[in-house]
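Q: How do we represent a protein-ligand complex in a form that can be generated token by token?
A: Start from the inputs.
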Amino acid sequence: MENNLAGKVAVVTGASRGIGKAVALELAKRGANVVVNYNGSEQRAQEVAEECSQYAKAVAIQANVAEESDCQRLFAQVVEEFGKVDILINNAGITKDGLLVRMSAEDFAKVVDTNLKGAFLCLREAAKIMMKARYGRIVNISSVVGVHGNAGQANYSASKAGIIGMSKSAAKELAARKITVNVIAPGFIETDMTGCLNEKVKEEMQKQIPLKEIGTPQDVAEAAAFLASDSARYITGVVLGVDGGMGM
Ligand SMILES: NC(=O)c1ccc[n+]([C@@H]2O[C@H](COP(=O)([O-])OP(=O)(O)OC[C@H]3O[C@@H](n4cnc5c(N)ncnc54)[C@H](OP(=O)(O)O)[C@@H]3O)[C@@H](O)[C@H]2O)c1
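Then emit the structure tokens for the protein with NAP bound:
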């Protein structure tokens, strides 16, 4: 598996920590040049880029994926620096949990803007570049709750369900240009996003996972690296659960 992405250029959104960081590192270990996108965590993103550059070229680029002009600038910078984009991992995401009846329209919009519109804006910019090259691998990070829903996460699960519909449409539109678009739906993964939950809640969650284990960012990174590779050339429009069986 080593070096099966040599010479490729990959953009990973939200790669300053958590799942995005693990994905960026795994792609770099397999030889890809990596763009480590971040929003606010500059120091952490620079450290991830430095770690990636042990294996291939890597740069950290700030862009708020919810902002159209930021996404346009991000991809213009990538083309200027690397000349192409082969792989896009749409990973940047946030939560603003709350019960539906108390959820503000602002909290609904903020989550959808970052998670769904952000993925759309990056997908659109990347697709323009990939269509000319007649090659591309796009992996969008959804969630098990985008398929099954979750109390307290109406905004988040709507954004993650939207990613699935958008990805299948994009997969159909872009297939003729040899661009694949797939989705990973992680279950419960140990990161800052889930770190705020107390131990009792985590124990309860763990009991409900068929494999009885909380997932790691590396579990998602391995799946993303596979879908980003030429080993997955004949796979498009799928939703791959990386969830210890939660999605069954
Ligand atoms: N952890 C889980 O259990 C789990 C389960 C299913 C799906 N997921 C999904 O997996 C993805 C990564 O989650 P995670 O757990 O690794 O989250 P995390 O640890 O909270 O990291 C989130 C990342 O997204 C970036 N980000 C947030 N808003 C952004 C914006 N507007 N523009 C650019 N980057 C932005 C953050 O960058 P800054 O630090 O610079 O703000 C950070 O790098 C998310 O899409 C999440 O919904 C996670």
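The chain has one domain: 9-240. Residues 21 and 86 are 18 Å apart (CA to CA).
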